[in-house]
Design brief:
Length: about 210
């Protein structure tokens, strides 16, 4: 299952329900820009599943004097879907990705630890962890509730930037989210990855000394 953020979901629902905003929102602006350049979205594709992250592509097409030009750009699935809906374009999913999406949840269950053990070890790993994105998340939630979607998108980008530049921080946040959602196998896998990175960082620090 492809999970998209609240802002992107709200933008998608607004377009499906044909509820126009007073001013063009981010995806509306993207659509207007694409059309102004003579292109349209011909299709979007969910192309890969790397770890727990889905990747997609948007196919832009322009035809001039019978000659077609196609431009393919990488995109987040949430943005790709928003563009597909606005251009009434088809959404395709790679067969291998679809196969992974179709796997039963039991295939990911952690066999060596009980849920209680996973919960205890994950909570221990995040016990003294301060999430610097908490305030941004609260601000984003307020912006969404007030339908300030452009502000919400900017705050989301700040959060993404913080998490993308700090791998261990990103894992801790993902681990806590997985635990709260009762995705115990995923939480355990993230915990193990965090411990591996911490050990690697420790070795590198000792080597530099």
């Amino acid at each position: 299952m492809v999970v998209i953020g609240e802002y992107e979901c709200a933008a998608l629902v607004k377009e499906i329900n044909k509820s126009p905003a007073e001013r063009p929102m981010t995806h509306d602006l993207m659509k207007n820009t694409v059309e102004a350049m003579g292109f349209r979205v011909s299709k979007v594709c969910v192309t890969a599943l790397i770890g727990n992250t889905y990747h997609a592509s948007i196919h832009y097409l322009k035809t001039v004097d019978g000659v077609s030009e196609e431009v393919v750009l990488d995109a987040r699935p949430s943005d790709a879907m928003n563009m597909a809906v606005r251009f009434q374009a088809m959404i395709y999913v790679n067969k291998q990705v679809a196969a992974k999406m179709g796997q039963a949840p039991g295939a990911y269950e952690h066999k060596e630890e009980s849920k209680g053990e996973i919960v205890a070890s994950v909570r221990k790993a995040i016990l003294h962890f301060n999430d610097p994105t908490v305030m941004y998340k609260l601000q984003m939630q307020v912006a969404i509730e007030e339908e300030r979607y452009d502000d919400a998108a900017q705050i989301r980008d700040k959060i993404d930037n913080i998490l993308s530049t700090n791998r261990q921080l990103g894992i801790r946040v993902a681990m806590e989210t997985a635990l709260n959602d009762e995705r115990y196998a995923e939480a355990a896998a993230l915990r193990d990855e965090l411990l591996r990175l911490q050990q690697q960082s420790k070795h590198q620090s000792q080597a530099s000394d």
